[in-house]
Give the backbone structure.
Amino acid sequence: MIKSLRRLLATTYGEHRGLFGKFAFELVVVFIGVTAAFAIENWRQEAEEARYRSTVVVAVGQTFGSVATHGRGISRAISDKLRVFDDGVARGDQPKLPVYREPGGEGPPTQIWDGLMSTGALKALKPDMVWRLAAFYNELNSVGDRYLRYNAVTETLVFGLDPDQADAWVDGRLKPEFRAYVAQLRELRAANDSVIRKADRLRRDIELDNAKH
């Protein structure tokens, strides 16, 4: 019985040996094809991620450029107004208070971070860079808050003065609340200058990091 079974298996194998070889070859071809397909798909995904990362870096860099450009315009305007005021005080005059008003809105554009978060663009950046960006935009938002506080004083106190603003002075000196108002404007400029420096630094660092990849 066993011998008969062995003869049958040997005969079957002999008759179908070519078919078995062809089937094994096809299995190898399928395996190679599937492996190659996975490799190509991984390469495609890596290429897409690299392009996406580069796009994000360019977009974020442009954002920093816009923030710095707008910020420099703010600092120049504030500096000009403070210079006129300080020169008048140095001459012994009683100049009008330096008033800066942000054109076209209630304050500088500060909600950029929320936009980046909503797009998912931050996943293309390294964790330490995301942390730096979060700290930067938090500081940028605080500059916007400073401006809103300053602007509130402008509207409640300064706009209520007589046209020549003589009532802001007493005995040749600014009243305390208006000295605080001018100091508030100087602090706003200093905070804005700090944001500009950090925006320039971040833009350079993120572009250098992207160039390495």
Summary: Residues 59 and 121 are 10 Å apart (CA to CA). Strands lie at 169-170, 173-174.
